[in-house]
Amino acid sequence: MVQQTTRDRVDAFWSSTLDTPPADLHTSGVRVRTNPAARESWRGIYVLAFEGAMVYAPADQVATITAAVADRGPDELIEAKTWQDALSGTAQTIYGPVRHYYLDRRDGLAELAAGRRLNPDDSDALGRLRATLPAQEWVVTGFTAQAAMLFGIFEDDVLVAAANLTQGPTVSGDPDPMVSSGAATDVGLVIHPDARGRGYGLRIAALAAKQAIAMHGVARYRALTSSPSTLAIAERLGFDEYGRNLVVYLNDQATPVF
User: Fold this and answer.
1) Right CATH number for 101-241 from 1.10.630.10, 3.60.20.10, 3.40.630.30, 3.90.226.10?
2) Is 199 a residue whose pLDDT tops 90?
3) 238: phi > 0 → left, psi -120 to 50 → alpha, else beta; which?
4) Residue 134 C-alpha from the chain's centroid
5) What is the dihedral of CA 42, 165, 140, 44, to 10 degrees?
6) Residue ranges per domain, the chain?
7) What is the mean pLDDT of residues 66-94?
8) Among 177, 185, 113, 122, which residue's Cα sits nearest to residue 148?
9) Quick count: other Cβ atoms within 10 Å of Cβ 144?
10) How does pLDDT run across 113-151, given as a tens digit for each residue?
């Protein structure tokens, strides 16, 4: 179980990111709010669920969304079908549900970790790995974000697994400036299609998580509920689930950073 200080600072991260009082994040039932000012122009709906569910929508959609979810419970709002039905096919894309996992101890990670930190000389190998994957997979795993660190596992000269650390919640220092701190705590990973099922995901995730915890005291890992292998990595490494989300895109914009 992650420490209470980790949970408190994760709550502070969401409070700052979503402009929502921490207590409201854990209110039962469903609440609909306008997307935070920093994402005012983003045409999408973001659902964050703990005990209840917070729904964030464009200002001109709040009334419509409020009416559409009036009789829905938190668990329903974290399911794609709910939004397909509620929006009558107007959603461009629905991503999720996604489970959020946190780890604030390094016990056992060193024994499982494999690979090394990537450097500029590995850019061609990284590009070849990217070419084997769907573009959306590269985006949602954080590889188009500003990564603080990249890690990889090679078979001969082929990069078969890669992980990144991008900005996410931190537990070091004052919890208030979490978003501006740029703490690289989010673990994202991809595996070459020809190398799946060999345990590379577990090993590269362990390496990245170990580094995140060493630098910032916590690692965050997010996994689609539709991906048993990705969920299994979180369980095997000892991550604890704390929150879920779902994103509804009302146009074809890129994934927002949350």
Assistant:
1) 3.40.630.30
2) yes
3) left
4) 18
5) -20
6) 4-99, 101-241
7) 87
8) 185
9) 15
10) 999 999 999 999 999 999 999 998 998 898 988 888 999
pLDDT at 170: 60
Q: What's the token pair of residue 98?
A: 């996604």
Overall pTM surpassing 0.85 (yes/no): yes
Rounded to whole angstroms, how far apart are CA atoms 124 and 157? 11
